[in-house]
Amino acid sequence: MQAIRSILVVVDAKLSDGLALKRAQLIANVTKSHLHLLACSKEPQDSFLAGLSAGLAADGFSVSAQTAWHKSEHETIIMAQQAEGCGLVVKQHLPDNPLKKALLTPEDWKLLRHCPAPVLMVKTEAPWTGGKILAAVDVGNSDSEHKTMHASLVKHAVDIAGLAQGQVHVFTAYPAPMLSAADPTFQLQETIEARYRDACKGFMQEHQLNEGQLHLAEGPADALIPKIAHDLGASVTVMGTVARSGIAGALIGNTAEVVLDALETDILVLKPEDVMEHLETLLAGNS
Length: 287
Known about the structure:
Number of domains: 2
Largest sheet: 10 strands, mixed
Radius of gyration: 20 Å
CATH topology of the largest domain: Rossmann fold
Number of helices: 10
């Protein structure tokens, strides 16, 4: 996160609390990043953006702003992110109507799926300072793709903890026993847990974590991540996805989407470098 030089902040005159901008300012204060404000609107937002820009400039921030609209909100955000070369997108997330979500894919889900840059979804005004930063990983998968993603998740969690004087915690879920599993290890609860605990020991050593920072539980990740985040009182949850070979659309796994409304924390969603490069190639071909 320290390497980010420009942050795209999605701003909305209808959201008086300006949570996304507050979080972006916190990050920019430490990283000295440029702030690019984007109002997704078909109507001019000149006075609104001018007021925000003037206030930020007076506080010493490097800032630019634009109003834009291209087909949909997520496409507008991604086009601006690509045009400005922003290394992070910060946006406030509002819970979707359950009926609407059942019929239509929410715009924030589409943004998480298709944006080549990391996306920080801001959900709360609770301060990050002194808080707990939770990284959700899957230590049971030790292939190179997952290991690279795990390292990125922990690194970003450490970066956030550094800028907020917080503490990093890591969570991993393991599956319930399956009598039909081909691998006998996954047929008994004791052997599954033992396998994951062994993997956790190596993971802690690799990332210099102590036992109090790593949490392990049985069950589906999408149900357990919000619970552990709540129990810890976490400020931010860092999640990611690993690309599969032969992907056509480089779609994000649905865990981040499913927990987006359930989590009580801000959420940073990352993708591996190869997925981001693939998305950028697709976007370049469609421009």
